[in-house]
TrEMBL record:
It comes from Melaminivora alkalimesophila. Residues 325-399 form the ACT domain. This is L-threonine dehydratase catabolic TdcB. GO terms for biological process: isoleucine biosynthetic process; L-serine catabolic process; L-threonine catabolic process to propionate. TdcB also dehydrates serine to yield pyruvate via analogous enamine/imine intermediates. Catalyzes the anaerobic formation of alpha-ketobutyrate and ammonia from threonine in a two-step reaction. The first step involved a dehydration of threonine and a production of enamine intermediates (aminocrotonate), which tautomerizes to its imine form (iminobutyrate). Both intermediates are unstable and short-lived. The second step is the nonenzymatic hydrolysis of the enamine/imine intermediates to form 2-ketobutyrate and free ammonia. In the low water environment of the cell, the second step is accelerated by RidA. Keywords: Lyase, Nucleotide-binding, Pyridoxal phosphate. Transmembrane segments: none annotated.
Length: 399
């Protein structure tokens, strides 16, 4: 079983090997969610994830014979990069098994750290089974992403650092997939400050740990923007620790996670992946239970696909009213489009897209329907733009 001593010894091993990331208050987020929010910036690690801690600690514990043979693991993301990077640093052979659907950018990033990449299977489970086969056939040491004492101990060092820097914290809110981070942090934090409230957060589409601990039957989805915690089977070791040490487990929806990613980008100017924003998403969704408390959140990683980030930003602008779709109906005469765009410009909005529709409309034949996507300052500004268009004898509505 995992013990506090394991985590303390891991902290000693990791000195100088991984970054001791800052843990600081976000005054703006605190005002928004009604709790005093402290952020632990694990997205600043070299591979942009806390996963380095567990990987580095596990590799440091290999004996001479194991170091000679090398290691193997299964991962489609941050654990792969953590193992590859620290294996390269320590001069070890590292074989990483990834599912065939793994995005090319993640494959190449991991290969860039000197690892041997094996693409196998259509699911994480198939990749894991193949990794175990390689471990046996080539006598490699398997480094589990989360269900390993040394890995969980490495992750637990996050809590030691947070409580050393912010000893007055009332609660820790930590994302959970397989449970390595939450289990390690919970054991460390509970040992140091027994009265601390410890809460885990899972994506509603992947509620495996919630179901396992709480006995619920929440259905599992097929995808989530928090892919770093999209785990179908929680660890046995981590489940036992979480069951004993964690006060509660919460679920958050995709929209909450999207909003949290965007808030961290806009307010803190920091890039966080979906899994790394789950803690803030929980404060957004379950704000009342944390009101007035000093809450520590772990920004566990920053490896997000640029196209996904672009979609999150655009959808966030729509929700906040800074991107709006407006439909304008007017007489189909020369210069009408120029007149409409001039009115929009004078109202201070910017045209992002224009769609000019004649055929697919129920309007009279001499009329035209124009759909505009506008960049605005918010809902009030949208209403001002619509009012100006109507004042010019045009039918205008939010679409």
């Amino acid at each position: 079983m995992l013990k506090l001593q394991d985590i303390q010894q891991a902290a000693e091993r990791l000195q100088g090997q991984v970054l001791r990331t800052p843990c600081v208050e976000s005054r703006t987020l605190s005002q928004i969610v009604g709790a005093q929010v402290f952020l632990k910036f694990e997205n600043l690690q070299f591979t942009a994830s806390f996963k380095e801690r567990g990987a580095c600690n596990r590799l440091a514990l290999l004996d001479a014979e194991e170091r000679t043979r090398g290691v193997v693991t299964m991962s489609a993301g941050n654990h792969a990069q953590g193992v590859a990077y620290h294996a390269q640093r320590l001069g070890l052979r590292a074989v990483i098994v990834m599912p065939r659907f793994t995005p090319g950018v993640k494959v190449e990033r991991t290969r860039g750290f000197g690892a041997e990449i094996v693409l196998h299977g259509d699911t994480l489970e198939e990749a894991r089974a193949h990794a175990y086969e390689l471990a046996e056939a080539q006598r490699l040491t398997f480094v589990h992403p989360y269900d390993d004492v040394a890995v969980a101990a490495g992750q637990g060092t996050v809590a030691l650092e947070m409580l050393a820097e912010q000893p007055e914290l009332d609660a820790l809110v930590v994302s959970v997939g397989g449970g390595g981070l939450l289990a390690g942090m919970a054991l460390a934090a509970r040992s140091i400050k027994p009265q601390l409230e410890i809460v885990g957060v899972q994506a509603a589409r992947f509620p495996a740990m919630v179901n396992a601990i709480q006995g619920t039957q929440h259905p599992q989805g097929t995808s989530t923007i928090a892919e770093g915690i999209a785990v179908g089977q929680p660890g046995a070791l981590t489940r036992a620790v979480i069951s004993e040490q964690v006060d509660d487990l919460l679920l958050v929806e995709e929209g909450d996670i999207e909003q949290a990613v965007l808030m961290l980008l806009e307010i803190e100017k920091t890039l966080v992946e979906g899994a790394g924003a789950a803690g803030l998403a929980a404060l957004i969704r379950h704000g009342a239970r944390f009101a007035g408390k000093k809450v520590g959140l772990v920004l566990s990683g920053g490896n997000i696909d640029p196209l996904l980030l672009a979609a999150i930003i655009e959808r966030g602008m729509v929700r906040s009213g800074r991107l709006a779709r407006v439909r304008v109906s007017a007489r189909d005469v020369p210069g009408m489009l120029a007149r409409i765009t001039a009115i929009v410009a004078e109202a201070g909005a910017n045209v992002e897209e224009v769609h000019h529709q004649r055929a697919f409309t129920m309007l009279a034949a001499q009329n035209v329907e124009i759909e505009l996507v506008l960049q605005t300052r918010g809902p009030e500004h949208i209403e001002q733009v619509l009012a100006e268009l109507r004042r010019a004898q045009m039918q205008a509505e939010l679409h």
